[in-house]
Amino acid sequence: MKNKDHDLETTHRVSIVIINWNNWMDTLECLKSLLNINNSVFQIVLVDNNSTDDSITQIRDFARQIPLEIAEFREGELENPRSKNDLQEKLVLIKNNINHGFAAGNNIGVHFALQYLNPDYVLLLNNDTITHENFLDELLRVACRNDRVGSIQPVLLNYDASAIDSLGQECYWWGAEDICMGQPLNHIEKGIFSDGEIFGSCAAAALYPCEVLRETGLFDGDFFVELEDVDLSWRIRLSGYNSFLAGKALVYHKRGVSGTLSSRDIIKGVKDESMVRKWHRQSRNWLIIVTRYYPKSIIAKAIFRYPHKVLFTLFRLIYSSIILGKIRKTGKILHKNLKVRKKVKKNRFWSQIWQKWLKSSPTTCGNVNDG
């Protein structure tokens, strides 16, 4: 897709990968915002995770109104897609046979882009986001002005721009969060946020050089959803690359701000299977991160400083594994990651990474309006 009136110093091809699952209204709003951005060359790969609503029909109708030609593929056709040499200027729609989750679902779209679209960068974008018209140019500007770039994230604000959604990822002794998530904003001014290095990029909106993804690999499907982007950020840094915030790139995200779990949540979780599944993903995925990347000294400090958090994580994992019948499967996944840990400890960047980026507690943002 090209905007012929826009002139970039350097033209970079970008494949934008978006996941849809039973949420076509948000997806169409996201697509509309992308069609208004001031970037020269990009192509959208929309992956539908086996939606059971009217998503496919609505997406087709939207494209017809633009008008925008769609190249549709079933999941089973991706190894040898029809008309793979005639994909330019089209919206690529991939229809998955099952819900692969956020991690594997995105991987399907990224693999397709790397194999058939020949981009320089892949942008992962949540379908519940709205993009500012210059956001992609700003991401590319930061990418071109820094060395060893592994990922670039825009400033993520909530939908009505009243609060910050994410200024990048940070890891601390027992947890990983988006920087300043939920911090209120009194006003938005151009240039209020500065470019800077961050630990890693939130995959709700993150730009990755294709050469980096080919080297590090994509998301680990074991995560399914939650913390898969934190794991990728670790692998990017272990490969010797850095991540950056593009302070003038703005994306608006509809995600609600999550708070800490209360005693009512615990009681609800005991009775609510959906909450139990959420517990299982959160606790299992976090323990995968700790098992893979955290030194024993930091784990010991976490146990001493945050015993309630550590015990609650273990409780949730054990309880949810029993209820869901996943004790053996969970044990195999964690055991597999002990082998990953041995390789990580031999990495020449590992010690440098955890010493610089693992903090005792989340960042206190203060008055972010001062930039």
What does the secondary structure layout of this molecule look like, with pairings?
Elements: E1 14-20, H1 24-34, E2 42-48, H2 55-65, E3 70-74, E4 91-95, H3 101-117, E5 121-125, E6 129-131, H4 135-144, E7 149-158, E8 164-166, E9 169-172, E10 175-178, E11 196-198, E12 205-209, H5 210-216, H6 228-238, E13 242-253, H7 263-271, H8 273-293, H9 296-305, H10 307-324, H11 327-345, H12 350-357, E14 358-359
Parallel strand pairs: 1-2, 1-5, 2-4, 3-4, 7-13, 9-14
Antiparallel strand pairs: 5-12, 6-13, 7-8, 9-10, 11-13
Helix pairs in contact: 1-2, 7-8, 8-10, 8-11, 9-10
InterPro entries: Glyco_trans_2-like, Nucleotide-diphossugar_trans
Family: Belongs to the glycosyltransferase 2 family.
Pfam families: Glycos_transf_2 (PF00535)
List keywords for this structure.
single chain; alpha/beta; 6-stranded mixed β-sheet; glycosyltransferase
